[in-house]
């Protein structure tokens, strides 16, 4: 990798326009469940402050945590909701907080599928085919009414986010949650129109996109996050990813974020644990990004997963392998990381990927870098 250009000459510092949404640089906060929403799913002051800090830190595009589109699809307590008109005012506050510092704000829309927490939702979880995988939670197979309701819920949630002043929405089809469960033959053993062949397994995702477009039209940015690979025997593969991304573009998607792995993928889960060698160990799904581009996909590609240095971010953008780079854990520890890099301090992210941040996020206590707090306590 050659020496980095001056901060103001970085390709990663240049703007990009996605279906009319101008993003001031190529840095994205990848969706990160903060566990900071109020009990009813509405945005809290803490959540607003968390997203504001990212915008202050020069993140060009801030993507919210996964937000459930219906109560039955809620993954855990403290999760943001986009499931009812009561959520609109809070989402509007989040949008304003990000806009005030020049950032763009996209809401990630999700259905947890079998990963819904029935102790929170009060109902059995839903999934493509019961009883789910042997290592996954148990659930009820979705019937036609469920599919229609979920599609409509995504459409309604997108309209709510647009009306609240968000700049776009992202469909969460990664990481072994609801739509990702449909894509994977490992979790989808349905017969009929929504199981079996790849077109059938991708049908719900494409219909969700159609339902969103049906509600908000063509002029509002709609992105999707999808696995480049499940990294599991019998799971969704890279070749299938390339095909589905191409179908999504044809169906009117405006940009795709490539991730990878599910909960059961061990060391290749979506938030891989362990220190990352720079630059060799960074950008885990770069090959799939190249394959997506080689297949002729023209919409912007956002790459997430293990990106920890400005050099790698710049190389991804300058090479054209990706159009934007997304970070999750590094921005938990350093919300000001992008501003630091753009100011010329190119030291890699301080995050050490120990994943202790998942603890408070999942407990609904609000995410923070546990390691940083412990280090500060020792000083
Ligand atoms: C605490 C935590 C919560 C996350 N929540 C989400 C989420 O709501 N939606 C999502 O698509 N990915 C979520 N992720 C995954 C990240 O967006 C990202 O794909 C993954 O951590 C790899 O990027 P990184 O190496 O920069 O952390 C979460 C990750 C962490 C650590």
Structure, explained:
- The chain is an alpha/beta fold and 379 residues long.
- It has one domain: Alpha-Beta Barrel (TIM Barrel), CATH 3.20.20.
- It is 34% helix and 14% strand.
- It is built from 14 helices and 12 strands.
- Strands 3-4-5-8-9-10-11-12 form an 8-stranded parallel barrel, surrounded by 7 helices. Strands 1-2 form a two-stranded antiparallel ribbon.
- Helix 1 runs parallel beside helix 2 and helix 4 crosses helix 7.
- It is globular.
- 53% of the residues are buried.
- Flavin mononucleotide (FMN) binds next to strand 4, helix 11 and helix 13.
Provide the fold topology.
Blueprint: E1 16-18, E2 21-23, E3 27-29, H1 45-56, E4 61-68, H2 88-99, E5 104-110, H3 118-121, E6 126-127, E7 140-141, H4 144-164, E8 168-173, H5 178-183, H6 198-201, H7 203-216, E9 222-227, H8 238-250, E10 255-259, H9 286-294, E11 301-303, H10 310-319, E12 324-327, H11 329-333, H12 337-342, H13 358-362, H14 370-378
Helix pairs in contact: 1-2, 2-4, 4-7
This protein binds flavin mononucleotide.
Summed up, what is this model?
The protein has 379 residues and is α/β, with parallel strands linked by helices. It is 34% helix and 14% strand.
